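#structure-requests
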Amino acid sequence: MPQDSLPANRDKPFLLVDGDGLSRLQCQIGLIPARGAGLKRRALVYALVAWLPLAIASWLAGSPAVHDGSMTETLLGHYGIHIRCLVAIPLLVLAEGIAQKNLALCLLEFKRSGLVDEALAPRFDAVIDGVVRLKKRAYPWVIIGTLAAAWTAVFLISPNPDEVQWAGPRSGGLGFGAWWFLLVSRPIFAVLLLAWVWRLALVGVLLLRIARLPLKLVVMHPDRMGGLGFLDRLPMVYAPFLFSVSAVVAGAWAHTVFYHGVTVPSLYLQVATLLLLLILTGMAPLLVFSGMMAGAKRQALLDYGVLLAEHGRLVDARWIRKEQIAENPMLDAPELGPVADIQAMYQAVAAMRPAVISKSILFKIALPAALPLLVLVATQWPVKSTLSKLLFTLL
């Protein structure tokens, strides 16, 4: 029997990255050690490979350390390049550990919390097995490689002069730094970025298939999400990707602001659009449970309404109309308690949210997406000079 068709070991948590096409390639070339993931080492190696030759090439080309007012720009002033190489690339590597830990904990919690009982467990396991098989497919990585190659080819055919002139072009051609940026630095970022687009799409597929199962939601759960509140860890899976995209784009826009006279207010529409798209990207996988939760709430309001009505009639008959009421288990049931308790039960059902959403979840999604953009906007506040010096110091 093929290995991919074997059922997954339920004692081992689901790992989003291990065994996919990119991790297998890195294992074969020795970037991932036999034991462990080597996250810190890989993050450092990728960052240095992407950035260090650019810095050396810029220095050898005689590019000034700071902008001297001439037409030639400096590598230092291209914030987007530095952020792409020194922030986004290592962060997308380190994100593997963050994603695997948090996603595995979320999936284990479905069973531990009783949302998936023993009867439903085989179907839940089958969903995970299906996504594991999908993760190990080769064709998504062929598509990713093709897209990265096409992306590289487009910039090779018509490179952006503003983006590579710091490399010191000679006789109308491109300098070594420009070639390294176009053939190495940008493709590394492209592959890692597209890899995370695919991985996060897998997370969406996994959650969508789980949401189609008859989960045992608890409509009175104090998390007000039917017991799905533990999914507030999920934004941590998306946060590095959201921050990386936001930071690289904000860095590119910052260059146009400082060197090309573009005003920040003229970018407000683009900033708002990017922020909205990133927040929707982070929220989308959580919204797949909305239909189930809304349906459970609607039905529970009807069911608990009937229960409350029956309980209220019995209480009214006994204590208002002074009727002789035969022994009724509803009036003496300890889990229902007095009238105040049963009303609190109904209010708990009514307070259930129709989606996995809260202030905490929104904050965890919006903060990494918005932070780089807020720094960009702040550059034309009264603290512009201070922030400018800070950016030049850091970059």
